[in-house]
Here is the input.
Amino acid sequence: MTLLHICQWLYDSALGTSIRESDLMFDLIETAHVLGITLMAGTIAIVDLRLLGLVLKKDEVSDVVAQVLPLTWAGFALMVATGALLFWSEAAKMYFNPAFRLKLILMALAGVNPLIFHTTVYRSVGAWDAAVSTPVKSKAAAVLSLTLWGGIIVSGRAIAYFH
Amino acid sequence: MAASKWAFAIVEMVHLLGLASLGGTILMVDLRLLGLRLRRRPAAEVARELSPLSWASLTVLVISGILLVIDGPLRYYGNAAFRLKMLLLLAAVTFSFTLHRRAVRFSSERVTAQARVAAVVSLVLWLSVGLAGRAIGFL
Here is the structure.
């Protein structure tokens, strides 16, 4: 049972087929996915820009994180749910799509980045919470985050061009 | 032909990135107006702190939007979703710079009905602009 077999099975399944063949269903799910970008990436961008000392400079980093991240997580849940359904309906084709493969790789990296950030430099946030200029590692994580999510959005749009 | 298809794609992607960042700032300011986030600061300060990002995003959206339309003006002119989007955009921008700006400026610790209405109208208008934009591709 190869990965391609699994993708083909998803593609041929009743759920996959009904989404793919229903213009309305696919379009609604896809619209929610595209507009969900705002809730997920738009909010994480604000956290990243705070780490870079460019927005909400008077607010403590931990406060911005605490206030904004729940929104990002809600957005992420929406993106994963809609994304999974979109993938399900086109799984066999996505297997061969280079833009989709790139998107998955970038998402994996985008998941590792905050993991490293939160377990290392963020541990000492108490010492630099009010700083406009945060530690270099924190700025690096922010730049990486913005770049990766930007790349994910771009490769996501590119999927249609390789379909 | 292939080169122009990719040029269009790139401009569209830039448009999408601008949408994400503008959406983020609108969301944060309106959530503050609703008293749901960043309550430690007055709404006016939140808006001020995010305004360079909102302005940059709006600029990127307008420039990329113009470049997209230049690609085939008549096609967009004939597209009902595009015309609707332009009307909604006009409404959203006008509202942002008038009643919404007022609500932000006069917002206080207590969340007033005016602040709530301004936030909801703003979110609905901008969401509609986004939906109409997506609908362009469907028509």
About this structure: The CA atoms of residues 98 and 162 of chain A lie 7 Å apart. Chain A has one domain: 3-162.
